[in-house]
Each structure stands twice: as structure tokens, then as C-alpha cells.
Amino acid sequence: MKILVIGAAGMVGRKLTAALLAAGQVGGQPIESPALADIVAPEQPAASVLVSTIATDLSEPGSAALLLEDRPDLIFHLAAIVSGEAEADFEKGYRINLDGTRHLFEAIRLGGLAQPYRPRVVFTSSIAVFGEPLPAVIGDSQDHTPLTSYGTQKAICELLLADYSRRGFLDGVGIRLPTIAVRPGKPNKAASGFFSGIIREPLAGMEAILPVDDSVRHWFASPRAAVGFLLHAAQMDTAPLGQRRNLTMPGLSVTVAEQIAALQRVAGSAATELIRREPDEVVARIVAGWPQAFDTQRASALGFRAETSFDEIIRIHIEDELPPA
Amino acid sequence: MKILVIGAAGMVGRKLTAALLAAGQVGGQPIESPALADIVAPEQPAASVLVSTIATDLSEPGSAALLLEDRPDLIFHLAAIVSGEAEADFEKGYRINLDGTRHLFEAIRLGGLAQPYRPRVVFTSSIAVFGEPLPAVIGDSQDHTPLTSYGTQKAICELLLADYSRRGFLDGVGIRLPTIAVRPGKPNKAASGFFSGIIREPLAGMEAILPVDDSVRHWFASPRAAVGFLLHAAQMDTAPLGQRRNLTMPGLSVTVAEQIAALQRVAGSAATELIRREPDEVVARIVAGWPQAFDTQRASALGFRAETSFDEIIRIHIEDELPPA
Asked: Whose CB has fewer CB within 10 Å in chain B, the N or C terminal residue?
């Protein structure tokens, strides 16, 4: 099975690549000639098979056709610029997040004109397709009312994925990821950054800023769960999806207070005392418009699984990211 | 007030143009330099003001910028190829229905870079953004699950309209029209054609083919109501829309049997006996996936009005289209 990962240099892309190479197979079929693409060349991973790494901009003419030269059977499309950047640079957001994806889908369609070609395409969408006013618990048939250009671009790509699948050009699965926590690495300026920061920094003995009230509720899954979603989407039987190719992934709805209580249980007061409350009206206003909880019956029935406690999410971070004690 | 109608040569476009010119004003502001555009040059209407008519393909580079040269204050964008054609010709559907609309929105945005420009844009969307499985009555927060490329293209344009409005580039109102009945003139390529045909042809003394079962239920408004929706969307206060710029228009949910009973009441058995049942599996399958009824609370609260009986819809057709008895 030939595999292409687009957006392989990002955090989830790197973890997905490592999981694929460690497994050596997808759905029982051995992986051959894996290719990793991103806007910057992905690092060459340690692997027993030859891995191609490609630096390319999917929004440039010809880029998608080049990536498809080997006719991969399975394509993970994770590449996107994040919400803050898509909001700050309108043209770049549409070019990368919409046109890039459309070029990929078109190149797949055109690749199938001469000889049959219908790869599985796993696309990462986002809960940013939803925006307030929203019900407290969002069901599987909630309409898309994005309040950012990023969310708009993801919602459009979901529609394209479904139509290209319906027409038989590709076999698509779109997965709306929860906010990923605990993100490894350094603090960033993303509005959602503190959700990871208040766990990650204290576990490393560093102070973390909490800019919102303890009562704020949000929707989470671990990086390990995200990789699990992607691998399941790559192998699942897509027939039960019907024409509804996009799914909200399961996750865990917890408040900041519940996050902190979990940190207390896992790492004690020495950790939680490093959280400093410094209310930020701007961040609080942004976060107030975000979804808080979902009822993900469809994805759960189809076998997607996330964590069921924030303690578990913290322990996964400790296992996967921190040096052994 | 400068007005541009794109898609002015179509049935709704012609009726809208006539209504605009007859009124001579929109929202109390006199109409000046109205311009009518379509892929073929719209007919020069009888009018006391100078009317420009332009044949242009909005999907061609430069077309949108040309149309905006006069910086219209109000733009009606009705241009689209219909569902049957968009399904038969994948590339043409995306080029006309998606790229054409995006070019228009982009030209508006770019027109506002040098000096402030934020026209009202009234966009005709469609209930084809919804596809089965659906609830019996579809509410205002139903997600978009189009089962055609046409419906996909309309759903994408709705998302773009909302994002361009949110960013302040234009002041958009998207209206999802019911199936328009009774359409005057000859049948077009739409699979929905028979819904009008079984009324229009018998009223003209001609036989009509009914390809589906009498129990089929669907959602209707008259051409006169459609023009009313457009004019209301052009004049309404858009502040109450918030970020939700797209609205399902009110309509009337009736079965084919109820359509025929209305025809019987209005025109008697001489008319209904001209309906010939000739089941067509392909049409029946397409229509089976269509919405049957909506709860349009938002649009109703915002002042949009449709007919409340199919008898009324038939009488409007007789008044507006047939020669006086």
C-alpha cells in the first residue's frame, strides 16, 4: 500500500508518520514507498523502508500532480495554515486551505480519467466549522456556521470531499478533530494555547498563565487519540458513511477547573501551584464562542475512540513526551 | 441607487428586472443606471431609465471586475447552471456555480481596497443544499448534506457569502429558494420540471407527464413570491442576521396529489385529465432525496412571505402568464 502524508511536518503529521512506520502496515497491507510532503521538507524518519520527503506548496500549479505521480492508495491531507494566520491573511488562508485542497482533489479526479484511480483520502477538518449561537451539546446534524475564515475553509473542503466521494473520484473521510491537548513543545500565541500550557508547563516545573475563568468548558482529545482517529479513518469500511463523509470525532468535554483537578490528582499541588491566573478579556471573548461539548454518536458507532478522563490525557502526555522518571 | 442583476436573462431574473423597473426605487432610493448581465445578453426591457445589458461569463477572468466598474450599490447574483447540467458536466458546474461566484466576491473585495466599497449582495441559493437522510420538517439549523454537485456548489457559495460579509467586504443575504412553481415557458433540464409541467401544460390544453408517485411531497413558492424574497432581501436591515447570512425562504409543502386537487378546483377535470402518469425511476430516485417541508422561523420573523395554498400559486400563474380569458 502506497501512502502519502501531506502536512507531514506538523505535530500530528510527525506522530502519524511515526505510528505508520512503526506498524509497517495499514489494514493488513504492508506499507510501500511512503511519501511525506509539507511546505518545508519533513524530517527523514528512522525507518526500514525508503521514505520520500518533499517540500512543496499544494496551492502552486503542478504541486498536486507531482505528489500523485506514484498514485498513492492512501492519502492523509493534514496541511493547513492555522486559524490565527488564516484570519490575519485572508488571501493566504483561502489559497492554502481551500485552493490547495481543491487542487489535490482535482489532481486525483484527473488522475482517474485515463485509468481507474480512487484513493482513500483522510482529511482533517475542525470543530471550527461550528460557531455560536450553538446548543450546549452539538449533535451530528448541526449546521456549519463558522465564525472564522479558517472554519469557513474547512467547511468548504468538507463539502468538496463529500461531493468528490459521491462522484466516485475518491473515497473520502473527513474528521473534525477536537482541540488537541496536551500539545507538546513550546507555548504559542494561539488563543487555545493555554489549554495545553496549564498542564504542560507545570509538569515541566514552569509557570503557566491561565487567561480565562475556571468555569470555561471545552472539547479535547490527546495527540495519541488524533493519530488513532486518522489510522481508523484510513482503514474503516466507508460504506456505512453513505454520502455523509465528514464526522465529528469523539472527545472529552471538561472545564478548566476539571483540567486542574486532574493535574492535581496526577502530579499534585507542586504542579497546580504553578498555574497563575491572569484574566485576558480578548482570549476570554474568543474562547466564549467555541463549542463546549458534542454528542458524537455517528463516529462512536463507527469505532472512533477518544479518552474518557482528563487524567488519562495527562498520563498520555507524560508517557509520550516527558523523559522517563 | 446603482443596481446590477447577474443572471438577468433567466426566468426569475426577468421578473425581478421588470419589478425593479416598475417600482423605480429600492428602499426609497431611486434606481439609477441599472445593469443586466447574463451569459447571453438580456433583452432590453421597456424602461424610462437607460438600462445596460451585458453578455459575459462570470467565470472568465476580468468579467467580474468589468461588471463592477460602476460600483453598484446593490447586486443580485442569480446566475447558475441548473442541477441537471451541473451533475452532467462536473467541470462546468464548478466553473460557473462556484468559480463564477467566487470571482464576483473577490472582485468586490478587491474593489474595496482602494476606496470603501461594501455593496448589498443578494445571492440565490437553493434547498438543494439539503439531502437525505433528513427530518420530515427541516429547521433553520439543519446541516448541509447536498446530494448533487449543484447543491454542493450552492452550499459553498453560502459559506463564502457569510465569510465575506463577516469580514466586511460585502453585505450579503443568501436566500434558499423553494422549488419555483408554476414556472412559465418551456421545460428546462431540471429534474423538478414536472412539478410545474403538470400545472402549466394542462392549463394550456396540453398533455403533461407525471414521472413520480402522487404521494411525493415537495416545497414550493411562486415566481411572484421569489421576486418578493429578492426585493425584501435587497432592502432589509441585515443587522438581525448576525453572522448567519443565509436563510431558507418560506414556502408551501404539498404533495403531487394536493397539487392536482388544487388544479381540479381552479381549472376542473378538463385540466387534470391531461396529466399522464409515466413513472420514471431515475427522476423518482432523484426526487426521493429532496426536502419535503421546512420550518422557516428565521425568514418569517424577518418578514419574508410566501403563498399559503397551492390554489393561490396556480391563480398567480394564470394572472401573470396566461392571456386574459
From this structure: C
